[in-house]
Design brief:
7-stranded mixed beta sheet, mainly beta, 9% helix, 14 strands, 191 residues, 3 helices, 3-stranded antiparallel beta sheet, Cathepsin D, subunit A, domain 1, globular
């Protein structure tokens, strides 16, 4: 892929809301992590089994961060068991599945490792293999390919602050509005 072709790629923010339609996960907050080679999904009660001599994995997912009421139980064909080194440097054997990931406008297949991410800030990491030659990552913006989550900021009466509502359609703006233009100029190959 040439530098000129890279500038035609759509932008993706450093965090996005994604769907995993084949897993019945309609929305999960994901960190776009170019430092991670593979993608990972928070999963628990992971169980390997065979069906008609084919390896499968059954697992449960809490798609919403800090909400354990909604649980999705999933069965998927096991691609392989893979040794993955976590950000803490520990190697772990993880089940790997192949599934579709979707933004508001795009859908494509990815390999997804399953691991307990309960203590992590995001239920899913979308690694560099999943975004390579599909997106340019704008590390200063969020939710460029999806809608921001709807939530309320907690009020702090002791500090005299009022509760603020954040609209789902709002997007966090980068301090430098010319960031994308500078990025395109950087990759411009015209002489």
């Amino acid at each position: 892929m040439t530098a000129a072709e890279r500038t035609d790629l759509p932008l993706i923010g450093w965090r996005e809301r994604l769907a995993l339609p084949e897993l019945s996960v309609t929305s999960v907050k994901a960190k776009i992590d170019t430092g991670a080679r593979s993608s990972a999904l928070h999963a628990f009660d992971i169980e390997l089994f065979k069906r008609a001599d084919v390896d499968f994995v059954r697992f449960k997912v809490h798609p919403a961060q800090r909400h354990k009421k909604k649980t999705v139980t999933v069965e998927a064909q096991l691609l392989e068991m893979r040794s993955i080194r976590s950000s803490s440097g520990q190697a772990e054997m993880r089940p790997v599945i192949e599934t579709l990931v979707a933004t508001n406008s795009l859908q494509w297949p990815i390999e997804l490792t399953l691991t307990n991410r309960d203590m992590m800030g995001f239920r899913m990491l979308l690694g560099r293999q999943a975004v390579r030659q599909r997106f340019l990552v704008d590390s200063g913006q969020s939710y460029l390919q999806s809608s921001a989550p709807k939530h309320k900021l907690k009020s702090s009466r002791a500090k005299g602050r009022k509760t603020k509502k954040i609209k789902g359609s709002q997007k966090i703006k980068h301090e430098n509005s010319n960031f994308v233009e500078k990025l395109r100029t950087l990759f411009n190959t015209s002489d």
